[in-house]
Design brief:
The structure is a single chain. It contains five helices and eleven strands. 30% of the residues are buried. The chain is 29% helix and 37% strand. The protein folds into two domains: 6-135, Ribosomal Protein S5, domain 2; 137-202, 2-Layer Sandwich (Alpha-Beta Plaits), CATH 3.30.70. The strands form three sheets. The protein has a five-stranded antiparallel β-sheet, with helices on both faces. Strand 2 (17-21) and strand 3 (24-32) form a beta hairpin. It is α+β, with helices and mostly antiparallel strands. It comes from Aquimarina gracilis. This is YigZ family protein. InterPro entries: Impact, Impact_N, Impact_N_sf, Ribosomal_Su5_D2-typ_SF.
């Protein structure tokens, strides 16, 4: 079985979308996030922007292999808002994303079925209005070596088209590289004949 080493995400916030049902308005938003803290500040900003709305329901997912997620119904009946929003994150197979649906109550109760449909549709529209990109899951390595081995190391990096993310070239040299997950083990082996060169996987 081939290792899956790509994931879908968005890089810039999607456009605001609007879904209406019986006078209730549901504004949908999609934002790229990398931490839970990111989501908190975005939700706070939306609460200021839509200060007269009734509910700010959301779902987010972070991570590529160790997935974390959260859903919030924000006062709507249990599982009628956050879960349908999260369902769209799953059906679009997307991560590192926050979707918020802001509801203005229109005076008519929609019932749980109506709410599920409204939050799901607003989330779907928000995702459809976003530019989804595919990114690779990368493994980061630290290569440590002495200055005299510089040419050998750089030759391997060049031959294999490796991405250098940071370098500290002093008496003891350190080069940080980022490698696609499915070739990571192979790249580690390429360096093994160089006895004085150390390559360590960094925890992501």
């Amino acid at each position: 079985m081939e290792t899956k080493d790509t994931y879908n995400t968005i890089i810039t916030p999607g456009e605001e979308v609007l879904f209406k049902d019986r006078n209730s308005k549901f504004f949908g938003y999609a934002f790229p996030i990398s931490t839970e803290e990111d989501s908190k500040s975005i939700i706070e900003a939306l609460k200021k922007q839509h200060h007269s709305a009734r509910h700010w329901c959301y779902a987010w997912q972070i991570g590529t292999e160790n997935i974390r997620y959260r859903t919030n119904d924000d006062g709507e009946p249990s599982n009628s808002a956050g879960q349908p929003i999260y369902g769209q994150i799953q059906s679009f197979d997307i991560t590192n994303i926050l979707i918020v649906v802001v509801r203005y109550f229109g005076g008519v109760k929609l019932g749980v079925g109506g709410l599920i449909n409204a939050y799901k549709t607003a989330a779907q529209l928000a995702l459809e209005a976003s530019k989804i990109v595919e990114k690779t899951i990368n493994i980061n390595y630290l290569i440590t070596f002495e200055y005299k081995d510089m040419n050998k190391v750089m030759r391997i990096i060049k031959e294999h088209n490796l991405t250098i993310t940071k370098q500290e070239l002093e008496l003891n040299c350190k080069i940080y590289i980022s490698v696609r997950k499915k070739v990571a083990d192979k790249i580690k082996e390429v360096f093994s004949p160089l006895y004085e060169v150390k390559i360590d996987k960094l925890e992501s």
